[in-house]
Write a structure and sequence with these properties.
The chain is mostly beta strands. It has two domains: about 1-105, no CATH class; about 130-445, 7 Propeller (Methylamine Dehydrogenase, Chain H). It is about 15% helix and about 40% strand. The strands form eight sheets. It has a four-stranded antiparallel beta sheet with strand order 3-30-29-28, with no helix packed on it.
């Protein structure tokens, strides 16, 4: 009987130990959950505090909220926080904070990447200052092909006859007199164009191996290749054409190539930059010189009869042709520049070797129907456009190169000589940058402000 009692006692002890262990496990788990929740609450409190700190100056001076309504990072337009006034700003309510409310936005920031930082309204009333010029500390063998300047940082693509030369450069342009090199990268044969979208550069490579390259610039001082992709071939024995143009829009890359046996326009889903996925293709029939996507339409400028094409990309997996335009002179001229603004589409063309006044170099279309609205002759060709009708900022390749402001068609209200051979133009806020070859340099024109 005694042995039986002892065994029973031991059984109770084991049961109690199991219960104690379970209670201990629950306690540890609860502590971890509470710790995690507390940390999350602390982080949220800090984030809210930071937003309130940013909002205080706006509440104190509602007139300034246009300048303080968004924060951009890595040269993109991803909105971190935005503030809006509950009533219009007028002379009777510009003081006090009672009329201001705050809308904290958390949009799809990746979709917002790549937006143009050029303001929708430019003030053309002051065109008297002398442009500033900064020599770029790169080899004259590196021919600049494209440039994007965002938040005072310039991303420049190039190609070189020397294989060891870098073809991607990043510069701090806050002191235009002395552009400060941040980093450079050699991606291969050379880059034809680039698009900067948040912490990534999407590059069109002049390679028969990989035409799309994606570069990580989370740390601008140490850019590195994230992924590469080949355009597909319809004929396996064909040589892949070099990439020639690129545009980013809402998580998709639109890549153009030289004329080949396969479609010259490919659309890539880059929502995961490490793994770009081919989404769609379209046969252009000629080299793609420039791409501009606006809403559900992609506009293609190139050579050949269909010098301007409008393509429906509302479904990027199935691009479909809307219409084409074949302006006079297409036999010798090719499209070189595009810009779309509030329903107006501006097409810039080269001269085709010699200037024929009957074949204009700048043509303005109604973007919705691709119907011509106006045109004018520019004997230096038009290789870059910022369209703010009735004003057009152009860079041409007249002797020494020029940057021109045309008020309406054919009336030039300002012209600036650009050293070397102008190769690319970018608008950052109210500042206009023009990159040149020969003696590599960047010219800054600061006459235009929002």
């Amino acid at each position: 009987m005694t042995i039986h009692i002892k065994n029973k006692a031991y059984g109770f002890l084991i049961l109690e130990a199991i219960i104690a262990l379970a209670l201990f496990s629950i306690s540890v788990f609860s502590t971890l959950i509470l710790s995690f929740s507390s940390r999350r609450m602390l982080n949220e409190a800090r984030a809210t505090s930071a937003l309130i700190d940013a909002a205080i100056p706006v509440a104190g001076n509602p007139l300034s909220f246009d300048q303080q309504s968004a924060h951009t990072a890595y040269g993109n337009d991803a909105v971190i926080a935005a503030f809006s006034s509950s009533t219009p700003k007028t002379s009777s309510n510009i003081s006090g904070s009672s009329t201001v409310s705050f809308n904290i936005l958390e949009p799809d920031t990746f979709s917002a990447y790549g937006k143009d930082t050029c303001p929708p309204i430019l003030d053309f009333s002051n065109q008297t200052s002398t442009p500033s010029i900064g020599a770029l500390p790169i080899s004259s063998t590196d021919l600049i092909t494209d440039m994007s300047v965002k938040d005072g940082v310039a991303y420049i693509s190039a190609k070189s006859s020397i294989a060891a030369d870098p073809d991607l450069f990043i510069f701090d342009m806050n002191d235009i007199a002395i552009p400060k090199p941040i980093s450079s990268l050699n991606t291969g044969p050379g880059l034809a164009a680039l698009a900067v979208a948040g912490p990534y550069i999407f590059a069109a490579n002049e390679s028969s191996v990989n035409q799309l390259q994606i570069i990580d610039i989370h740390d601008r001082s140490h850019p590195f290749m994230v992924s590469q992709a080949k355009v597909p071939l319809d004929i396996a024995s064909s040589t892949r054409p070099n990439a020639s143009a690129i545009f980013y829009d809402k998580g998709f890359i639109y890549l153009g190539t030289e004329k080949g046996d396969s479609p010259e326009l490919t659309v890539w889903n880059v929502s995961d930059p490490a793994h770009p996925i081919l989404a769609g293709r379209y046969e252009i029939g000629n080299k793609v010189e420039r791409i501009f996507v606006d809403g559900s339409e992609a506009y293609i400028a190139g050579s050949g009869a269909n010098q301007l094409m409008a393509i429906d990309v509302s479904d990027p997996t199935h691009p479909t042709l809307i219409t084409t335009a074949a302006p006079s002179g297409w036999q010798t001229q090719s499209g070189q520049a595009l810009d779309v603004f509030e329903g107006s589409l501006a097409l810039g063309r080269d001269t085709g070797g010699f200037n024929n006044k009957a074949n204009p170099e700048l043509i303005l279309y109604d973007a919705s129907h691709i119907t011509q609205q106006g045109s004018f002759d520019e004997r230096g060709g038009v290789y870059g456009i910022i369209a703010r009708p009735p004003n057009f900022l152009l860079f041409t390749r007249r002797t020494s190169g020029q940057f021109r402001l045309d008020n309406g068609f054919g009336t030039t209200s300002a012209a600036y000589d650009i050293p070397g051979i102008p190769a690319a133009m970018s608008c950052d806020g109210g500042n206009i940058y023009v990159a040149s070859n020969a003696d590599p340099s960047v010219t800054l024109i600061k006459d235009f402000h929002e």
